Amino acid sequence: MNPVSKRRREFLGTAATIAGAMIAPGVFLYDYAHGKAPGEAASGKVRWGMLIDTTKCASGCRDCVDACNQENGLPGTTRPTDSQWIRKVDLKDLKTGKAISAPVMCQHCADPPCVDVCPTGASFKRADGIVLVDRHTCIGCRYCMMACPYKARSFVHEPTTGQKPDVPRGKGCVESCTLCVHKVDRGGTPSCVEACAAAGHHAIVFGDLNDPQSEISKRVRAVATTQLRADLRTDNGVRYQGI
After folding, report:
1. Which of 17, 84, 137, 196 could bridge 122 with an S-S bond, Cβ 3.0-4.6 Å?
2. pTM of the model
3. Tens digits of per-residue pLDDT, 87-99?
């Protein structure tokens, strides 16, 4: 890092620390979703991921999107400036006529471009592969949004309402899918996965990619899967079947 960049990063880090200062003892302006106790580290032995089977994902079904919105206190509106942590995408091959539908969210890359460009370290990857934004230090510069190849991040333009205690949000910060880390850290499953199963589709499998006995690992070994923009070699935690 050249001296100018280093000084700029240090300045932005200091500014972010001030912006994230406590408004009362133990009460911060910003935080990030988490379920572990403060100071309790995520395990590097685990790598959480998802396998999305597009052959089971129904076009027009938004159960995963609605569950994400409800779990994380998102408004559910779809204006260009609204937060959307999951988007349903429909694709059609004009030559074969084959159509697929699939949810697209943060891909929880092993080498996340959003982390590389963040000037304050607010974008970070946990040891278990979950990529998050720390609202203590996010200054809303949106470099991470420009760097994300999957357009998976949103900027909060408006004051937030209906916030959930486990998923603090704040105007002026960037946010994205957390894999429902507050549930995963307590042994739970992301809400989108639960909603998909409840609807009878079972198109999303969640689990530990490092555990050879996990369902997701067995499926990844047994069927052809792909990563979005695999050419970028970001080693995504979200895999797709049927694309």
Report:
1. 137
2. 0.83
3. 999 999 899 999 9
